[in-house]
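We examine the record.
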Amino acid sequence: MSVTRRDFIDRLAAGTVAFGGLSLGAAALPAPLHAHERRDWSGPSDFTLRHGSAGAQPEAWDTSWPKRLTGKVKTVFDVPEVDSGYGVWRATFWAMQYEQVMGIPARELSTALVLRHNGIALAMQQPFWDKYGVGKMKQATSPVTHEPTDRNPALMSSTRGEQPADYDVFALDKYIARGGVTLACDLALRECVRMIQKVDGIGEAEARKIALDAMLPGVILQPSGIFAVVLAEEAGAHYVRAS
């Protein structure tokens, strides 16, 4: 890479300040399409499974999200690694740069973010990371300090003293709240299911329900990350390897 991660962070901060926080035209973006009920995850629940796994009928999968990829420039950011959460951050700041440099308004820019392989961990809420030791397992590091962390780097916040306020806009929950499309790989989710089975000593079906309930509200599960990438490309999105 031509710049260090420190340079990367500094430039992001400068860009955020220049935009006065963020100017992505959030009001013009569609409301996020929830993959399951919007609530904070604190443990197992009676969540009704609405997604199939291997062998599921096609109608079990939500494939309506490509309709939300509209405007002049469409992108799909492929995030297969945790990578300090930078893959998630990139899904936001590219639009800031396009608006600033190219003069293209936010309403003409849309992004699909695909969390697959090791990157599936970024789709999971913090209580899941805490209970199952995801930070240590994935060797997660803070996007700001680069030190090892047990926090989900894609969900860090200044309100908890985890990062400067200027970086909050890049967090995954903020991206989803602005209407950003976020997709998760079901094949990768199976690793989380096996982890739950091993730690909790329960069956696959129950573990899968726990894993789905632990996902951040607004994340849309897909048969695989590659499936989601190809579907986005068919909708005209430019492919970006983001981590």
